[in-house]
UniProtKB/TrEMBL annotation:
<protein>
    <submittedName>
        <fullName>C_GCAxxG_C_C family probable redox protein</fullName>
    </submittedName>
</protein>
<dbReference type="Pfam" id="PF09719">
    <property type="entry name" value="C_GCAxxG_C_C"/>
</dbReference>
<dbReference type="InterPro" id="IPR036280">
    <property type="entry name" value="Multihaem_cyt_sf"/>
</dbReference>
<dbReference type="InterPro" id="IPR010181">
    <property type="entry name" value="CGCAxxGCC_motif"/>
</dbReference>
Length: 150
């Protein structure tokens, strides 16, 4: 088991959800802690607000790409390749999972009976690992160095 897969397991065991896990691992690789960001992206999990809608791995990958090429300050603009990178990630996700909807991808395995203790199937860990790898691949392909952003 590689380090990323083990870390995904640890974070899922600590009740972080998919999008949170992706961003937490990204920030950890950069030596950064940002609890406000991790709290905020928690609303994207379980298919956006645990609705079974848009998969948190899709939104998580887009958020990671945004860390490298998105606008963060008033005086900034998105980098030229921002939309291209996002489109590449979305196209990969669509081809890989044939849907953007959490409920379509993991179906009845999504349990939202107790919102305080959401449960995620093993399949989610595999999707998270693939999503992280793809986001990192796209970032590198576009000339950004993981861990070295403004």
């Amino acid at each position: 088991m590689n380090e990323t897969v083990f870390r995904i397991f640890q974070l899922a065991s600590s009740k972080y959800c998919c999008t949170q896990i992706m961003l937490k691992i990204q920030l950890e690789q950069e030596g950064i802690e940002n609890t406000d960001l991790i709290k905020a992206v928690g609303g994207l999990c379980g298919g956006v607000g645990f609705s079974g809608g848009i998969c948190g791995v899709l939104t998580g990958g887009i958020c990671i790409i945004g860390l490298y090429s998105g606008k963060g300050r008033e005086e900034e603009y998105n980098k030229e390749d921002f939309y291209e990178m996002i489109e590449e990630y979305i196209n990969w996700f669509d081809a890989e999972y044939k849907s953007r909807e959490c409920m379509d991808i993991i179906g009845s395995q999504l349990k939202k009976n107790n919102m305080k203790e959401p449960s995620y199937p093993v399949k989610c860990g595999e999707i998270i690992e693939k999503g992280l790898s793809k986001a990192w691949e796209i970032i590198n392909k576009h000339g950004y160095e993981l861990g070295a952003r403004e």
